[in-house]
Amino acid sequence: MPILTADMSAGTLVAWHKQAGDAVKRGESVALVETDKGLIDVEIFVAGVIEKLLVEPGTTVPTGTPLAIVREAGGIAAAAGVAAAPPPAPRVAPPPVRPAVGSGRLKISPLARKLAADLGIDPGSVRGTGPGGVIRREDIEAAAAARSAGAPRTGLDRQGRLRQAIGAAMARSKREIPHYYLSHTIDMHRATAWLADENLQRPVTDRLLYGVLLIKAVALSLREVPELNAVWRGPEALPSEGVHIGVAISLRGGGLVAPALHDADRRSVTDLMRGLRDLVKRARGGGLKSSELSEPTITVTSLGEQGVESVLGVIFPPQVAIVGFGKLVERPWSVEGRIVSRPVITATLSADHRVSDGHRGSVFLDALDRRLQEPAAL
Fold first, then answer.
1. Cα–Cα distances in Å, from 344 out to 25, 196, 311, 341?
2. Rounded CA gap, 242 and 231, in Å?
3. pLDDT in tens, 292-317
4. In degrees rounded to 5, what are phi and psi of residue 318?
5. Residues of the chain with CATH 3.30.559.10
6. pTM for the whole thing?
7. In terms of CB atoms within 10 Å, which end of the chain has fewer, N or C?
8. Taking Cα atoms as reference points, which of 194, 238, 216, 170 lies closest to residue 5?
9. Please, what's the b/e burial string for 259-274 (b: 16 or more CB within 10 A of its CB; e: otherwise)?
């Protein structure tokens, strides 16, 4: 069972797309899984033949649980997983025990106690897996996931579970990541003028939105500050070889997801526009892939359509940065000693201070500005 969101600890197998004896290719969708984010197609990360299905449809299992046994092309049997998250090494842990009350005080870490209060979980009903039965943060998260998995499958309940999952991830982000924030106002005159001319030459179905220029400019700017394009694993950040932009998409009925536009720095704006339309459609109608949720290396969010001029985003763990854009507005602008009216946009960077600092963040925003002054080169 892949980890598809920052605080996901369990998922429900809805259906298999393959059966025992079927051949599979790397990246192929083999199963449908339900999480708080909705129904997700799970991709396999090895090529071979399925030997055995280990989990029945309708079963809820913890993340990291093998779903199937696959004999790889070279003849090695392996537990099936997803491209972005190979199965974790087996862990040997003592069986969970009921936390001792003893003197009347529950044995629970301060972090776990606060999270339990945030999520509305009764710590007394949770089994602790820490030394001596101490309740840890992971135990509270597992209890919240189990409660969500057992909730009635109604639209309202799913929305509540989604908000709970988002809340848990954002609480973890603000609790564990030392954020710093920078903002920069960018003259969009050249970008919007180029976009208007370009769209006149395109069919209506193939026209570009200015948002895709922002995504491509972010992707290219990360080449100059690659430490922002990374994920936090354990004690350090690991830079990513690919630039996979997570695009924040609001869902009908509330909540959001941020699936990835893979290799955004190497794709044309036309290809990115098609990919963005496809992501939005599948995010709101169902059909996202597991790799699209597990592989973003940085997120771009825009609330310009809601009328706000700046966005101070909260980083999506395990990423180390998020870029926000407000709406395009007309403002007085000084150009060669003259005051003119120009369309401008405010770009903000929220970044992890363990990984970068204000100087490097400023270099990134300056690169972003320069990229948007040369829209034809995007």
1. 47, 16, 14, 9
2. 12
3. 998 999 999 998 788 899 999 999 99
4. -95, 15
5. 178-377
6. 0.74
7. C
8. 170
9. bbbbbbbebebeebbe
Question: For the segment 8-47, what is each residue's pLDDT rounded down to a tens digit?
Answer: 888 889 889 999 999 999 889 999 888 877 778 999 888 9
Three-state SS for 241? coil
- DSSP letters of 275-336? HHHHHHHHHHHS-EEHHHHH--SEEEEE-GGGT-S---PPP-TTBSEEEEE---EEEEEEET
What's domain 178-377's architecture? 2-Layer Sandwich (3.30)
Decide if 350 contacts 179 (C-beta within 8 A).
yes
> What are the respective helix, strand and coil percentages of the chain, to the nearest 5?
35, 30, 40
- All CATH 2.40.50.100 domain ranges of the chain, comma separated, are 10-79
For 231, the token pair is 């994920």
Contact 113, 33 (CB under 8 A): no
As given in the structure block, the two tokens for residue 330 are 């007309």
User: Taking 60 as the threshold, does the pLDDT of residue 169 lie above it?
Assistant: yes
d(CA 207, CA 148): 41
Percent of the chain with pLDDT over 70: 86
